[in-house]
Every structure is written in C-alpha cells, then in structure tokens.
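Protein modeling request. Please complete all fields; requests missing the sequence field cannot be processed.
Requester role: graduate student
Desired output: 3D structure, token encoding
Chains: 1
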Amino acid sequence: MFNSEDNRIDSGRYATNSQSIQFGPWHVSYDISCILPSVCSTKVVCERDDDQFCQFCIYCKELSIPHFPDMVFPKNTLKLAHKSGAIIHFNPLDALKCVGKNEIIEVSCAEAWQEARPESEKLKKAFDWTFSTDYKGTLTDNIVVEETHEVIDFEILKQRDQILFYHDLTLFEDELHDHGVSKLSVKIRVMPSYWYVLLRYFLRVDDVLVRSRETRMFHLLNTDYVLREYTFKEANAKDLNMPTSQMKEADDVIPYLTVKEKVTHKLIVNFDSNS
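Delivered output (275 residues):
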C-alpha cells in the first residue's frame, strides 16, 4: 500500500489536489478543487465549435435544472478503480442529474404568505428546489449489481484499527434561501482489512421536514465483491419533537428519522465484460 499526493491544473484550469492509495486490486483516489463559478469563465473558448467548455458551461449543457446549488464542487470526486478496469465513481454532476423534477416542498412561512395574499395563485414550478437526489454513485458497465440478504458488519467498522486513508468531500451544498440546508457529501476510509464509503444526502427544511439518503459501500480484503447498502429516511419536523437548533447536524438528527426504504446489493466485478 502507498500514498501519493500531487497538485495539478486540469484542462478546465482548475487547480486540484489529489491523494490516492492502493488497496489490493483497488486503486482509491480523490480530487479536491474549488467552487463552480456562477458564470462562464471562458466565453470566447466556449462559443467555439470544438467541444471545449468551461465547467459552468458543461453543467449548463448536461443538466436540465433551472439553477444550481449555491456551492457545487465540480472537481471534488472520489474514484475506486479495480485492476480489471471496473470503476466506482462519485461526482456532483451525476448526482445532480438525479434531482427530481416534480417534488414541491413548501417552507414553513408559505401558508401564512398565501393567506395574506388571497388573490394570488400558487405558481408551482416542476423543479425540486431542495436538490433531493437518490444518487448512489456511478458504476461502469462491467460491475454487476445483485440483490443480497448479506448486510454490512458494523462491528468491524467499530474496531480501533489504524486508518490508512481518509477524507470527507463535499459535492454540493445549498442553504435553501436561509430556510435550511441541502448537502451531498462522500467519505472514504481505508483500513488494513477493508475500505468503507459513506455517501450522504442530507436535507433540512426548517419547520417542515428532515430527510437523508445514505449509500454505504463496504469491501473486505480478499473478497470479490462490494456490499452496497442504501437507506432512505424522512420525518416531518413536527413529529421529531426537537427544536430546529438540534437538527443542524446530520449525525444528531438522522438516528431519529423514520426508515422509508432500505436495500442492500452486491457489486461484483464482471471479468468477462469487454466494457
């Protein structure tokens, strides 16, 4: 096993910091960079017909949502690459492609606002302004997904072994016009006998609801598969019986949310695939 670190500037003129480690047949790496700009940064280049676009224009072309979260980190990525060529990848662009288009969540003051303006009509746009996403990571075609009853052994995760590699990456975050928070982050931890990933989408709409969508991936050394556990939780704020001040941190409130969906899969590398 080894660590490496380097700083580089990619083709989009983004200075990125990268670190990586080799774990058995898996090469684990992450990149960190700056926030997505709010406007095109290279208009002359992006207007040329040569498929060379800045990150802002790439997001505009790839996404159908009317606006982006306050903070998007386009080059913050986590990649787990198997020696066979199979890749598990986490990035904000693919996550935002999974944002729903029809969910309407109103802030707590919306009803009072409407009552004060009885002549107004509710104009509901087909856009989820909370950026709720059920993104579970991006898999290459040579990874087979199978249902399983096997679960992640959390007792292994509790063992106090040496941490060989760790990082917590924010993919995007939005403060919902001061009405809460919407955040997608991914953590990677590599230990002597396993690697573990937690992808978490956390949503808090003040005085309305709290939601989490968590994808955990666990790979034990000398096994030929990855366990992926997806859990969707949600609760109305009024049902939680706690003040908003205690809902600020995801770790403090998620244990109290109601489980709406939980499913576990095995991710198996298909060595016969030519993809």
